[in-house]
Amino acid sequence: MKALRISDYGQISTESVNRPVPSKGEVLVKVAAAGINPVDWKIASGDLAVLVNQALPLTLGWDLSGDVVELGEEVSKFNIGDRVFAMPVIGYDGAFAEYCVVNVNNLAKAPSSVDNTVAAAYPLVSLTSWQALFNAGQLEAGQRVLIHAGAGGVGHIAIQLAKAKGAEVITTTSAANAEFVSSLGADQIIDYTEADFEEVLASAKVDVVFDTLGGDAQRKSLNILKRGGKLVSITGISPEIEAEAKALGVSAEFVFVQANGEQLRQVAELVDAGQLTVTVAQTFALEDVPTAFEISAQGRVRGKLVMKI
Ligand SMILES: NC(=O)c1ccc[n+]([C@@H]2O[C@H](COP(=O)([O-])OP(=O)(O)OC[C@H]3O[C@@H](n4cnc5c(N)ncnc54)[C@H](OP(=O)(O)O)[C@@H]3O)[C@@H](O)[C@H]2O)c1
Hints:
By secondary structure, this protein is an alpha/beta fold.
């Protein structure tokens, strides 16, 4: 089969490799499409080599949709022919390939109301948002949440999940994406090119900040949290930020997304209920995924990029 792999950091190529074989508790999925995420090019460049859990070469791509075509031993939850979506475990062989092996615990039936290209865009960003907002952030109905970069892959899903929970959503974006985030349900939009969110929210603090940016935005976010509020970051938390948070009476937690089939099942329900839509900005053939990495790295994508077999 064809697979997009790194043989060394910085060396990406499409190669012909053996089709993987599912072990106990795993299924083989014929990949129809795979979402593209910043983690792909960050691992490929070596910047996130720390996440790699196997010897190179490594097949990139940690989002997929497709059909189950083979069952490993002791698999009863899924059948051959099931249409599924998943986030394979980051750092092991992924889904930029014709076939990918997935543990059944990380798999769910794909939402029936969307095609495979759309289904493949959901898993990684939905699980990230779910775990950040609800597991770490403990976001409740009626609370105020600031979601940074609301037009991005993670942000545009997080806005909708927070709204579905009944929270009040404030988000940062450039003016070009204001209408987009408004259409997803954002209650207040701060154009970060024109206004400083720290000033805008100084007298209207929030219960939770979902930090997708890091750096200055993360540090300033501490000051607009209510006492007892939660900063949840997916970019990392330094000991200095932890100390600053403690002094302000707020918490700061880093979340690294975990594969989770049960949460994906709930995501699929929201999709089929019309409460969660993903925006696919552009699709790419397997061989053209390196071009998608260049686009993603510019940090301006609205929604998601997807690889289609
Ligand atoms: N820890 C984890 O488990 C985990 C999981 C997923 C992602 N991540 C990380 O989280 C980050 C976000 O991921 P993503 O997939 O959402 O990225 P993305 O889709 O590439 O984000 C692009 C979006 O960011 C917006 N943006 C850029 N600069 C901004 C700023 N200063 N203020 C507000 N919005 C800004 C852009 O909107 P405008 O054009 O309007 O500026 C664009 O729509 C990445 O660093 C990724 O590696 C971590």
